[in-house]
Amino acid sequence: MEVPNPPWHREPRRRASKPQLSQELVVKTALGILAAEGIDAVSMRRVSQALDTGPASLYAHVSNKDELDELMFDRILGEVSLPTPDPERWAEQAKEILRGQVKAMLAYPGIAKVAWRTMVPVGPNVLRHGEAVLALLRAGGLSLKQAAFAGDALSLYTKAYAYEGSVWTSGEVDQADVARRGEQMTEYMNSLPPQAFPNMLQLGAFFNEETASDRFEFALDMFLSGLANLASHPPSRARDDKLGT
Question: Can you say whether residue 141 is alpha, beta or left, with left for phi > 0 and alpha for psi between -120 and 50 degrees?
């Protein structure tokens, strides 16, 4: 029979057991570091320290840092909801997905760099996003080949826009250096003859932090209105084979 300890004896402390290591836990931990400190702070060693284990134990679940980056990117895309295609509002639905992708990438400083440098990242959420965009473009009347090319162009622009935005929040550039360069550029542009560059000398008002969202929305409108026009006015038969209609 087990005899209980007398009340004046302190009960021995039980050491809290660590959660079982898994790929999901590794990625979740890496995302926490990424959100707080940016992509450059994420390393196999740093993640292993956060999990109170050795780097070697991580390799049973993630083969290397490149795979960890891809898994993080895929997990981030999983935060973006995907609509059921509606032919009546396919263009707006496509915009919603792309806006969601940008918002998700900007929430994790530097992850857009991963999306940009990884030419064909493949994961369950990446595939779902690709299929969703293609389905919307097909619902808008595009052929599969047209949708494939359009989806590629929209993806490239969205990743480039998110990467440009993340450069300022991830610490990749020195803000003081950028400010000095901006002052130099303004001084230089103001020294140029207005009659030689009547348009270029007025562009400064359109390229700043306040207009970033406007630029993105303008590009989406331009892309998607052009695609809608293409769908409603099919190209001549001479171009059918090239465009896959």
Answer: left
Distance CA 157, CA 99 (A): 12
Distance CA 85, CA 230 (A): 19
Distance CA 183, CA 191 (A): 12
Q: Express each pLDDT in 82-103 by its tens digit.
A: 999 999 999 999 999 999 999 9
| Cα–Cα–Cα angle for 125, 131, 135, rounded to 5 degrees | 145
3-state helix vs strand vs coil in the chain, percent to 5: 65, 0, 35
Q: Are 33 and 42 in contact (CB under 8 A)?
A: yes
- Cβ–Cβ under 8 Å, residues 109 and 34: yes
Structure tokens at 124: 């369950």
CA distance 230 to 232: 6
d(CA 181, CA 194): 21
Prediction pTM value: 0.81
In angstroms, how far is the first alpha carbon of the chain from the final one?
83
Q: Which two tokens stand for residue 19?
A: 């959660």
